Amino acid sequence: MAEDLLTRPNSTQQSAGDQPSVVKFDNVSIAFDRKPVLEEISFTVVRGETRIILGPAGGGKSVLMKLANGLLRPDSGTIRIFGENITSLPERDLFKRRARIGMVFQESALFDSLSVEDNVAYRLHEEHVPEQEAHARVVEALKFVELEQAIQKFPPELSGGMRRRVSIARAIISQPDLILYDSPTGGLDPITSTTIVELVMKQRDVSHTTSLMITHRLQDAFTLAMNRFNPETGKMVPIPDGGVDESTKFLVLNEGKVVFDGTTHELVSSTDPWLRAYLS
Questions:
Q1: Element spanning 254, H or E
Q2: 102-109: average pLDDT
Q3: Quick check: 260 pLDDT over 80?
Q4: In which band, very low, low, confident or very high, does the pLDDT at 3 lie, cut at 50, 70 and 90?
Q5: Is the pLDDT of residue 190 over 80?
Q6: Is the pLDDT of residue 17 over 70?
Q7: What is the pLDDT of residue 20?
Q8: The CATH classification of domain 21-100+178-279, taken from the options 3.40.50.720, 3.20.20.370, 3.40.50.300, 1.20.1250.20
């Protein structure tokens, strides 16, 4: 799939210069037990952009995601979310910022003792949203992920793919300004993975929500980059003329360092030996 892009015309890339940044890392480093995990990481994600994060296992991708959500603090450098430096914010202020962020974990992180409805509505209950309004919003979120029929079920009754879809519904329930997808297709079969990627695409193209997405599957990454969600058919379709989605870009990490930061065409056209081997 990546090879096909090399022979296709380059899409006109939208300038990010006039777009406000939603996520900005500036020379961020963090180590555990004196072992560097991320070293001098710098990148910017603008409003409406989807940033796919690739790289070998153990390269610091999930740590980067936790830094973006304020769950970890860097040893050095600054992290700005929605234009605000969160590096040294008190936990109570971080909690307020997280209200604008949706998080999808690889393991779904659902409460087995709560129904699907109560799992999806968890944040709304914390915010004391009236029950009738919360129910309506849960139904809307479950319809978005095509799972409204499971509203009264419990997580142990669901397949892995269904649990992941519930996790996405929970992430979007508060209409976040930023969604962090930490390996949303991890551990799923290829067909189910494609279903999850289609939901990420739907959120990108219908709601235009800024997002970061970690994936270990190159096929998922390029499916997201080369297709667009069609609201009329409710399915994803290839972008005409071999194009790519202009709002979807890539960040590649290796051994805790950024080895690539750019567009889809720049990635597949790179002559860097390590990147070419990784993509092959």
A1: strand 248-254
A2: 83
A3: yes
A4: low
A5: yes
A6: no
A7: 86
A8: 3.40.50.300
Note whether 137 and 118 are within 8 A (CB).
no
SS3 (DSSP) at 265: helix
Q: Which two tokens stand for residue 203?
A: 């959120």
The whole-angstrom separation of Cα 197 and Cα 215 is 10
What is the pLDDT averaged over residues 203-229? 95
Residues 8, 31 contacting (CB under 8 angstroms): no
Closest residue by Cα to residue 221 from 243, 201, 240: 201
- Give the three-state DSSP class for 255: coil
**Alpha-carbon distance 145 to 34, whole Å?**
42
Alpha helices in the chain (DSSP H): 2-5, 61-68, 91-98, 116-120, 122-126, 131-144, 160-172, 190-202, 218-226, 264-268, 273-279
What's the token pair of residue 24? 């900005």
Q: What percent of the chain has pLDDT over 90?
A: 78
Amino acid symbol at 254: N
